[in-house]
Structures are given as C-alpha cells and as structure tokens.
Amino acid sequence: MGDATTPGVLRFSYGIMGSGKSTVALQVHHNLTRRGLLGVLCTLFDRDGTAVSSRLGVSRPAVEVTPEVDLLAMAHEFALVNGTLDFLVCDEVQFYAAGQVDQLGAVVDELGADVFAYGLLTDFRGRLFEGTQRMMELADEHVPLSVEARCWCGRRATHNARLVNGAMTREGETVVIGDTEAPETPLFGDVVTYELLCRRHYVEGLTG
C-alpha cells in the first residue's frame, strides 16, 4: 500500500440501513491506523455531520466529501505532506457523485493505496444511488455486509422505506437525512424516519 508500483484495491462493501456499514468502516480505520498505516476517513451526510458515527455510539471525525471535493487531489496532497498514502476509508459513498467514485479508482491506480468504501445499495424508491451504481461498475471487489437486518415480519430486510410522519412514501428528494428512529423533539414540521422492510412488504407498502 502507498506505492503506485504496488497494486491497491477498490473494495465496495454494501448493505441496507442497520447492516453495520459505519461500524465496519470505523473498525477498519482503527485497525489500519493501529498498524501504523497512514490514511484518511471520509463521509457525507452522516447523522453526526463531519464524522463517521455508528448506531452503537462510536464516532470519529472525518473529511466531509462535499460535491466540490476532488478526492484524487486530496489524496495526492496527503501523500505529498505525509510521504505516503496507504488507504482511504469512505463511508456513505452512495451520496458521492459518480465523478468522485472515478477519483477513488484513480487513487488506487495512481497511488497504489487501498480504498475501502461503504454504502447503501438502493434508495427509498428501491433504485440504485448514483454513487452506488458507479461503485458497482468500477470496484475491484463487491462485498455484501454480513449483518442481516430484519423486516417487522421476521424476514430478511432488503429495502429502506421512507416514512414521513409515520406514513410510507415513494416520492420526494433522493437525499433526506433521517434515521430508523424518530427524534424525541422534531426540529421541523415533518418527521422523516426509515423502516427496514422485506421485498414483499416494501412492494405492498405495509410497515410495522
């Protein structure tokens, strides 16, 4: 890692909400840094803002990948300042632009760094996110996360359903930040939450 002559890997690990992707991202980052490797933790639209946070309560500051961020330029600058770049750990890659996913591929090819990317597969409409689609097209490895979330009926959950004030919706902006639990004190008029459903109950629109 950290040498353009040494092949790196672009690995995309994916699942639905509740599948533990942020927890795994934090664990991978922790393990790599403990080995003395140098890298960057990145995210976008995390529930804690400019951090990668797990529902287990673990959080770590991260670089926010806003649309204007050039990840390849950032990686080259990090390598110039620190002498090397061994890895990037990127959470919430479903929200990255397709061009930024291309930049992650270039980080692997030009710098020999490993890129560990984590994200959701589909949005609340059951369609691939832009960043996810490009990642599936470009990644060297595709790894489904092993933690299985469950629908209210007990079957394996496969879809993230969006609820607005408790009612399931299939319309609206692709990116609306929410969680699987409603906030105790809503800050705005509508309360947006997400429920994990199996395919059957997602299609039928039956929530728990």
TrEMBL record:
Keyword annotations: ATP-binding, DNA synthesis, Kinase, Nucleotide-binding, Transferase
EC code: 2.7.1.21
GO biological process: DNA biosynthetic process; thymidine metabolic process
UniProt-listed Gene3D superfamilies: 3.30.60.20, P-loop containing nucleotide triphosphate hydrolases (3.40.50.300)
Binding positions for substrate per the UniProt entry: V175, V176, I177, G178, Y194
Pfam families: TK
One GO cellular component, as annotated: cytosol
EC top class, as a word: transferase
Reactions mediated catalytically: thymidine + ATP = dTMP + ADP + H(+)
Active-site residue numbers: E92 (proton acceptor)
Family under the similarity heading: Belongs to the thymidine kinase family.
Protein name, entry field: Thymidine kinase
